[in-house]
Write a sequence for this structure.
């Protein structure tokens, strides 16, 4: 079909078809853009979750190593963790276990997703293991 | 006289639905990207956790290395298991111990792509 034929058809049906279709693209765009934005937000939220969980694992391993050496955790250790994160230390005769847990907030407040992040690390206590 | 229906009058000249098709493609691409990102993120987290476990197991092995390689590797295996990993290899050389630990992927879907992650660490006294 040629371009002129198409133009002719458009001119012929100007009063009906084009008037009916005018605004369709805008409405479709307006309806679907929030969906695209929501999926993009979920993508960014997943990336944030990954980074946060890596931070928790690193913090748990570092804390376990510090405590296994017989030292105490820095007083501001909790400040370096993400907000809402809580850590728990379990000391055995031979090991130290550090567990960090936190609840993640949903990217869509109307839909509360129960996402819980946790990281745990176990280190052998040096003052016990190094002395036979 | 009734006019016959001609598809080209609607499909070529009409623009109704063109945005929907385009946005549907974009949404499908974004959903695929989201799924891939979730899987890669999970794999990355497990890799980092396995590396931490390898470090802790190597340190635990080095603590017992003075009593011999067998005791060192037994201690490294114990710490690796407590960190939910499996000790694959443990060798000592002079005052160093080298451990290799492995952890299976927790996600069933991810396990079909990446069965397990391994990490190596060395520690000494």
């Amino acid at each position: 079909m040629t371009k002129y034929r198409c133009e002719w058809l458009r001119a012929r049906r100007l009063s009906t078809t084009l008037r009916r279709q005018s605004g369709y693209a805008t409405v479709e765009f307006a309806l679907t853009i929030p969906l695209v934005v929501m999926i993009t937000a979920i993508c960014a939220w997943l990336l944030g979750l990954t980074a946060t969980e890596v931070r928790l694992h690193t913090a748990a391993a570092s804390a376990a190593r510090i405590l296994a050496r017989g030292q105490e955790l820095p007083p501001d250790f909790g400040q370096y963790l993400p907000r809402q994160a809580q850590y728990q230390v379990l000391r055995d005769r031979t090991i130290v276990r550090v567990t960090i847990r936190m609840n993640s907030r949903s990217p869509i407040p109307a839909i509360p997703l129960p996402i819980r992040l946790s990281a745990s690390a176990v280190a052998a206590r040096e003052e016990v293991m190094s002395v036979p | 006289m009734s006019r016959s229906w001609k598809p080209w009058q609607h499909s070529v000249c009409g623009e109704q639905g063109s945005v929907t098709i385009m946005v549907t493609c974009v949404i499908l691409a974004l959903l695929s990207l989201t799924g891939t990102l979730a899987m890669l993120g999970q794999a990355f987290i497990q890799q980092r956790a396995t590396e931490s476990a390898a470090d802790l197991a190597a340190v635990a092995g080095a603590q017992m290395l003075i009593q011999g390689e067998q005791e060192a590797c037994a201690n490294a295996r114990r710490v690796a298991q407590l960190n939910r990993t499996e000790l694959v290899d443990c060798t000592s050389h002079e005052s160093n111990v080298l451990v290799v630990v492995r952890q299976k992927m927790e996600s069933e879907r991810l396990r079909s792509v990446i069965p397990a992650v391994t990490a190596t660490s060395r520690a000494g006294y």
Notes: Residues 17-129 of chain A form one domain. Chain A has a mean pLDDT of 82.
